[in-house]
Amino acid sequence: MMDLFPSRTLTLYLSRLFVSRIFGVLIMLVLILQVLDLLSESGAILAQPGNGQAQILHYVTLRMPQLVARFLPYSVLLATLFTFFPLNQNSEVIAMRAAGLSAHQILAPMLATALVVSGVSFAFNEMVVTRATAQLKAWQNVQFGALPDGDEPRSNVYVADHHDILAADTLSGNGQAIVLQGVTWYERDAHGMITARTIAPRATFAAPGWRLEQAERFDVAKAQSTTSPALVVAKDITPAQLDITQADADRMTLGQLSRTITALKSGGRRTAELEGKWWHKFSGPLSSLLMPLLGSVAAFGLARSGHLFIRAVVGMALGFAYFVVDNLSLAVGNFGGYPPLVAAWAPFVLFALVGEMVLVRTEE
To answer: Within this chain, do residues 291 and 332 fall inside the same structural domain, yes or no?
Structure first.
């Protein structure tokens, strides 16, 4: 029976080439994109009184994990092309084929390396990216000012109380110890028209309701503003509702997202979008495994035929087409067009079959 991998020496050689190029491309992409991102965000950071170089560096530490997670699959794709292109051009692939290796055997070390990269990406997303995303979103929501105290700052809270709406810029704490910052209470009639708006810098749970401190109320019909040192509103909104309303899959680990989906389902709320993102927490990192297969079209074929560059472009096009289809599938799933499982995994399966078909038809 033919071994799946080539010799140990050749396996290590290909894996080492592949890993060095993955990290090289990733570092290049992240540094360039981080600089471009700082050019657009540094003004907003420094506009906040008291912010300086320390806050700029803090922003970089929060933003960089997001860039690494997002562009790691792209790096694997480009590293595949940068590995296979010179191997083909220098006739090393021809030498491997002449030694009796199949295209799948040549590709096997890179697929194994990509699988390890996928595992590292999954762990990195769970342990680093989710926490950094939660902190960065909360910080951006207060215009890079001081964050409220709390173990896990959350932002853009929005809860309906019958016709009325309670909104807050940030939420900190849990249960009855929840503290809302930048609170707005909208009173609406049966037709959804706003009849009054109350703003307050802070709100706490009043059991029942939420006590707005230093509240300022504007009556739309009378066009009058009144102030109150304390005002209790939203008596039907409980701390449990606020605990589950901030259902942002990007800032949640797999376990937190699972608990949120269960809580929302028990309350009769739609969870298709969150379920699709739950599955995508697996299929997203695993997309790195597809990149060597889609980019392998650049590895084979005679360099002197003049089609090597075209093969590299085709491999790059297949890789980028996967990301486009993946995002489109998630968007359609969010609107209920696909079941969550299909929305997250259909692009992966489709492009795995496409990559395998191209490889078999051209080389095997």
So the answer is: yes
